Structures are given as C-alpha cells and as structure tokens.
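>> received
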Amino acid sequence: MTDSFLSEVFFPIIRAGLGLPPGVFAREDPDFQNVIEIGKRHSVLPIVWTGLDALGLSEESPKEAGSMRLNDIFLFAQRDLALESIVNCFEKNQIDYVLLKGSVLRDLYPEQWMRTSCDVDVLVREEALDSAVDALKRETDFTYVQRLYHDVSMTNPNVHLELHFSIKEGVERIDGLLSRAWDYAVGQEGSCRFVFSPEYQIFHVVAHMAYHFTQEGLGIRPFIDLWLLRHRTEYDESAVRELCRQCGILVFYEECCRLSEVWLEGKEHTPVTKALEEYSIKGGVFGSYRNLILSKKRKHRGIGFYFSRLFVSSDTLKEIYPKAKKYPVLLSFYQIRRWLRALFCRRKDVLREIKSAKNTSNSELESFDQLMKSLGL
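>> returned
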C-alpha cells in the first residue's frame, strides 16, 4: 500500500462517504479490491459504500459489494433492535443508564448504520448492576455470560452486550477521571437516560484511544469518531484540553486531531502524524499482534518480556478474576488457572505471540519508542 493510494484513493472515498469534499481523487485506477480490504479490516465499509456512490463509482465496485452492504444494514438493524429492548427495559425498571461508544456516536454519521460496532455498550451505576442484569434476564432475550473487570458480558442470539458498571481502562493516568464518569453525565428530562457532557464525551473517546494505542493499536474508525465529535457538536475546546491535560494525554489528543484532519480535510502530514498513520493503518480495528508485542517489549526488554507475560501482578489478577478481590488467598490459584487456560485454550495464540516477539527487531522497538514519546505516552 502506497502513500498516494491512501491520500488519493482511500481517504477521498471516506471523505465522500461522510459528505465531505473528496479532494484529489485518482479516479483512473482506484484498485477497488484494496479499498474493500482496508475498509473491512478497519470496519468502515459502510462509509466506503456511500463514498463510492457519491463519486459515481458504485457500478464499478466488486460484485459482492451489494450483498456486503445489505449485511452491514442487517447487522445494524439487529443492534438497533437490541438497544431498543435494553433502553425500554431500563426505563421501565427505573435504572439510570448512559449509552457508550457506537450506541451514541452513530448519531454523528450521515446515516446511523454507517457507524459499525461489534457490541452494544451501556453504562449503569455499579450499585444498580445486579438489578440491571436481573431486569434484562427477566424482560429481554439477553442471557448472562460472565463478569469482567469493568462490565458484565451478556448476549442474545444476535448481539453481544457489554453492560458497564465502570469505564475505567486499567491505566492509572486516566482511570481517576474515568471513575468520575457520572459526575459528567446529565440526566434527560422524563427519562432514566443520562448523557455525557460534550467535553467529557470527547475526552472519553480520546482516553479509550490512548488505552488501545498503548495496547494493540488503533484503526481508522476512532479518528473518524473524534473528527465528527469535534466538528458536529458544540463544545468547549479549552475544557477538553484541560481534561486531557489532567490525565497526561494532551499531546496524544493534539496529534490524533491532526491526523484526523489529514485524513478528512486533506491537510499535510507532519513526521509524527505520518508515523501515527503507519502504526494505525497496520493495526486495523482490533489492533495487531505486532503492535501488542511492541507495546509490551517497550516496557519489558529481553527476558523480562517473557516473565511479564508469564507472571502478572496481583492487581491484574484481581481485575481478571473479581473473586480474588474478596479472597486474596485465591491469587495463587488464579495465577495457575491463567496458565492452564493459556496452555489448553489459547495455545495457538501463545505460540503466535512468542513467534512475533522473536521476530521483533531492535529498530522496530526504537521507532515505536520514539513514536510513543512524541505522543507523550
């Protein structure tokens, strides 16, 4: 994939799909297959379809485009129906809630179905969690799966629900402010729904981006979310900057804004945005093993990397296995349980990670370290 392909083919299509001026577009040889592959990897295909229509290229797109578009709309309809049942359930049972991530960001897109999402994410107060779970089990087709460190996982035949009782990310620098989410949520008259202030909504998106960036990486979609929030909502920029400053992610926020402007406004790259683009494009919507290894090896070099993956801290174990918070004596048991799960349930993933770690060069680590420092992370 060349730089010109991104700047003259892919992102002009994305801009057109969002109703923005496409700018310079290499219409002669757009390489549709590559466009589709990147769009799929980054979960922005609905924007791609709309962009191709806007540019008058829908007839030249691959034959499978029509069925893929219908599938995107079908998946959105399933999530929308599930969200409606969740909201109705909480309203009936007087349970306060906040819609998170794609459940609310979709309103910023030209069409809601254009904002894809793997899950439905909803926040409830921690003290109301059990009541919320019981109500969903009783009045909807959602069933309980498991409780994780900041949410309860539930599912119905078509949709996965992350019922959050916290939006903390397990990152000290940002968790202090994320733990105060309800302080920044405003109740809606005649409803149990609460909405984050515009400034806190932007901060939450950036904080979530910062977490994923320091783990396995980012894709294209979060930058689109950020640009739309900044350009299609009214907010106080100084307040957003102050929230980011408090958590040490102000530089990261600034550079993410710059890259979103490169992609959606056609602005010129800087060395930092160029490096950030390369890292993000390679990661895809779910990140990559390469990015994960770089992040882990940046903190733990040499043999320390393998020890860090083998032995995790007691705090991490308590987050993975909540019972250990109440019964610390179980920590050793859960450490062994984690090893057994890796050995018998995730063996292929573990071997893949070890192979990736061996193939990571010092030059890659140095480049990644420089990028992280330039982003203030």
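>> The beta strands are 97-99, 120-124, 143-147, 151-155, 160-164, 185-187, 193-196.
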